[in-house]
Hints:
0% strand; mainly alpha; 2 domains
Amino acid sequence: MGLDNPLHIAFLLIVLLLVFGAKRLPEMGKSLGSGMRGFKDAINPDADLHAALTAAGQADPVPVEHDDVQTALSAPVQAESVAVEQADQERAAA
């Protein structure tokens, strides 16, 4: 006695149409859909980012080896330390 019978679903839709009216049903459907979408986004926020990147044609990020990351992260620090040493040498020479 559930909603597995198509006749039950049709009867339920007719009752909803009579109770809420034809103008109100699409508005209710939109609000229900946006609520469900918001709930899904709150539970899994990374899914939208992944879907947007996939739709834009960008591939998944390529994993980087640990050594490459260390080199990439330490390069700006090394450049800054060289610049600081040069500035110190110039001040000492003056």
